[in-house]
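anyone seen this seq b4? input:
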Amino acid sequence: MHARRRVAVALLGLALAGHGAYRSRRRLVGRALGLPPARFRVAVERKLRIPMPDGIGLLADHYRPLAPGAFPTILVRSGYGRGPEFGPLGRLLTYPYFWFAERGYHVVVQCTRGRFDSEGSFEPFVDAAPDGRATLDWIARQPWFDGALGMWGQSWLGYTQWAVAAGAPPFLKAIMPGVASASLSGIVFPDGALALDLVLRWLALVDTMDSWNGRPPLWSLGATTPDAQERRVAPAFRHLPLVETDAVTLGRPLAFFRESLDHPDPDDAYWQARDCRAGLAEVTAAAHLVTGWYDLFCREQLADYAALRAAGHSPYLTIGPWHHLALGCARTCLREGLIWLDAHLKGDRSQLRERPVRVHVLGADAWRDFECWPPPARKTRLFLHDRGRLSTAAPPLASEPDRYCYDPADPTPALGGALFGRGAGPRDNRALERRPDVLTYTSPPLAADLEVIGPVRLELYVRSSRAHTDFFGRLCDVHPDGRSVNICDGLFRVVPGKGTPQPDGSLRLEVDLWATACRFRRGHRLRLQVSSGAHPRWSRNPGTGEPLGTGTGLAAAEQTVYHDRDHPSALLLPVSS
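predicted toks r here
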């Protein structure tokens, strides 16, 4: 299995260059990914102009099997280009379109409004719904359309599916949004902070792609390396006010970025016009959601799944050991996408798994299938104790609290986890845990394996010298050799009126550490980190209460964490039965 993965990675890397033996390489990569054999040769009609209701045209390519007969259609709406002329990523993305067409699908790949050669102004996500609906109507009028349509794609391409799914015509029979969410506000402003790492890296990526046109392939590849992107975003991560970080990153202001910072409230009408979760009850297309434990969309995608279930739908869900840009995730989205679309557009359910939920269990390197998410579990509390201990024993009547100072001028950094760029995923946290602004609480070595599957929570009793501050929690798996590997984490942004006041003036916080599936093996230990930031995954809390986008002041916070009988701070784990 590992050998096959290495082969797939190597071949996908070659695909970026895109020189010579294109068809042969495409077949080799498909074989390495375990796809079924191709059945048809493919023709491509490029630069089809699809008119929108306001008169502008969006350009699309049409991949079709060279064979008689009717075939269902897959629509992909992308802001990342359509083919080799759109740079290395555009070339790489053509592979799935050929693969689908070779296996009996019409594939329509469209550049979204204002992107590359599509007409109109680029304002992210604003026109996704009306443009998507107009594209569905255009497909329905084509003589080759057989009445069955599905949508497929990851990240931005996943959001475009949610934008049209609610109330769509009945011929939209299936969608497969991977590492994406119907909610934008929860992604851009998680927990009241700005997702600075995601937003600035995404802006830099989109800007780099815009500069690919006419550039040599080697320049394009060099501009997208992690080091090149890091040089662009690193100065902006340190900059205040946040509203100027677009200009620091790109050399110019972006109106849509600055406008979004004027609306940090997810309930604001600005975000309600862009979020799609409220319409999930109206989705009739069969939905298969794919995410990863270290994906920055994971929490919101699980909320999408819960909303679909609450509305009486039966979505499929796949959660792997991936971060947002992991090749393993892309591979699964493709393979599961073929199975899903075959089942719902062709009526071939032979490869569809019996149970709708499949999750990868970290630490066990195994997959587990369930009827629904989350599966039944026993809630287990591990209490914080003095001297950095974590135990099932209740805390004593009296215990000296722990203290640290959080300085936003030197914010506690994000190490691994749900990042958009380099360093995402599981990482050894020992260097982070040596910082004076990070507390750790560690269990004794486990006498037997412990399997945790479901949402993880942290009940924390705290006090701060600032009315505006953050508390961050992270669960780690400590190996016998001392490595402390991050599993899941989350942040709570304190503002006046948020948190439960206690009689002594302290606050009780419930920190959402997101969800996981992890087997902590015998001899390993569980470790909880407590700090006040994970910058730049969440923008640092300056401690001043100034507006998120325009604040420039920085004020250090003296933090206190309690663990006594009246303040029973505890980690809440869903332990498998």
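The two ends are 30 Å apart (CA to CA). The first strand starts at residue 42 and ends at 51. kinda curious what u guys think
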